[in-house]
Design a protein that fits this description.
homodimer, alpha/beta, six-stranded parallel sheet
Chain lengths: ~190, ~190
């Protein structure tokens, strides 16, 4: 691999913080690991993409299967503090922000355009949660011709067996599954 | 649900037939069930989409993680009998053919455009295989705003536990999982 980029997905207050409306169990536990991977990418000056879910306050851009829950508990609404990236992973000015309103970081965004423009051939994926935003992003990245690396201890899911089953499927389409401690060697060469 | 359409995915000779280069174990066993669902859609005159994977003979449009296998054993190459839809599910002249070269039936195809133009609000998904082409299509359909119904005994995967784990994840995003015998009631109203 020659040109890696890091994707950090949905690490926003509404999904991560204790007591937040859509808090995902396990999300807080990976913050330190995502942060460690982020520091490595910063150290080697590789591009970093912070991918965030942002919704209009009327919910018109929410998936149909989430209309009911959004009506009860609006989440990651534009301009709210809940939609903000958690402090520990705050982007620098040079890092990219990708706003999405679907699971995949590629759907209706300019992520592919930016990656191509930067000559990236490999994406490292971190964040939440494994079966949904992580997996759809990994499968789309593979479909668009990128090598994919999943940093296993920097992603999380609500359910451990779901997490494992999804790792298995991603490995089956050629995704390289690594732990955070292996990332440094992969991106330093 | 008001306007359903049927998607039949990748039921092509190279993936289904005994001894075919990329035969998927389990694919032959679902032919009768897919056929039964197809007959129901024909009976009620709902749109049917035959989604097929078609590759250029030089493999330039194959996913990078399949380059090696394609080089050894080319599959579903344009113009070959292996790329053809199996006889049992042969499309009629009024049914739609969608050619793709990625997993999702929506990627780089006009499937969404056709479904919208026809006023379809619900897609029924059948074919192979559960963790890849079936699941990516289901997740993209949900992202594009369609209700999704998976006909469990009309899809198959190489591995039973992978199949089950994927059904679980699809149910979690609101996909209705049914058996073929339940389809008639759902599309006749």
């Amino acid at each position: 691999m020659n040109k890696p980029a890091l994707l950090i997905i949905d690490m926003q207050n509404d999904f991560v913080r204790e007591g937040a409306p859509m808090q995902m169990p396990g999300a807080e536990q990976i913050i330190a690991n995502v942060r460690a991977v982020l520091e490595m990418f910063r150290h080697y000056d590789h591009p970093v993409f912070h991918v965030v879910r942002i919704h209009r306050s009327d919910g018109s851009d929410v998936e149909i299967f989430r209309h009911e829950i959004f009506k009860k508990v609006p989440f990651t609404v534009e301009g709210t503090s809940g939609s903000g990236i958690i402090d520990e992973l705050m982007p620098t000015e040079r890092e990219y922000i990708i706003r999405k309103n679907r699971m995949s970081a590629f759907m209706n965004t300019d992520l592919d355009l930016l990656l191509r423009s930067l000559g990236i051939d490999t994406v490292f994926v971190t964040g939440i949660q494994t079966p949904n935003c992580i997996r759809t992003t990994v499968f789309d990245a593979a479909a668009f011709g990128y090598h994919t690396v999943l940093v296993e201890d920097a992603v999380a899911a609500r359910d451990a067996s779901v997490h494992q089953a999804n790792l298995h499927d991603m490995a089956n389409i050629g995704t390289v599954i690594v732990q955070k401690d292996a990332v440094c060697d992969l991106i330093s060469s």
